[in-house]
Amino acid sequence: MGASLRPLGESNSVRKIDSGLIREEMSDMATSAVLTASETHAMKRAPVVEGVLPAIHERWSARSFDGREVSSATLKKVFEAARWAASSNNEQPWRFVVGRRGDATWKKIFETLVGFNRTWAHRAPVLILGAAAMHFSKNGAENRFALYDLGAASSYLTLEAATLGLTTHQMGGFDQEAARKALGIPAEYALGAVIALGYQGEPTALGDDTLIERETTARTRKAPGEMVFSEWGEPAEL
Q1: Residue-wise pLDDT tens digits, 91-128
Q2: How many CB atoms lie within 10 A of CB 158?
Q3: What are phi and psi of 103, to 5 degrees?
Q4: How far apart are CA 168 and CA 195, in angstroms?
Q5: Is 231 within 8 Å of 225 (Cβ atoms)?
Q6: What domains lie within the chain, and their CATH numbers?
Q7: Is 102 strand, coil or helix?
């Protein structure tokens, strides 16, 4: 399992107290004090809200991966979750090209990444590229929701990964045309993101102060009133 993930059946109250205390303790730490993987995960975990799926609280985008490989059985579960996402007309337009460290597909995906992403993604045991068919198979009409549906399937994938103790990091920083050519992806498929997947590693393994700081900085989110409206610009009363 990933670094110090709590069992999903554990009491929400225990999780809330634990993550809350750790978050308070770490918020005032000097940036020079590097956290461990387990401390980082506890700090990154979202505040527990009763009734919200635990995997949503657990998911965050790590850049440090440890040396463990991801088994075929585990990968099957991740993609099983993705295939049950909703889609327009049940078209299921998503396709995923998956590379595992050491094989040709992993190398091809990695080589399309921009320089910054290469500095850390080389540690990821699995690299995945998502694509979406932009026309409906039944009549050839344009599917304006194909990328939306790919995003939904990718979200299912990342949440299942978090449930299994894995971490994921989704990247838009890659050369799309190079990826299309290297992987033989037809023109009628739009490309989504590259997803790095594996088990969380120690922040210090990143070996770069900027990356370590990003890895160990607390997450923030907009308040619900900034994104949920009763009419445009007016926060909804929830």
Answers
A1: 999 999 999 999 999 999 999 999 999 999 999 999 99
A2: 24
A3: -100, 170
A4: 6
A5: no
A6: 12-65+205-229 (no CATH), 72-199 (3.40.109.10)
A7: coil
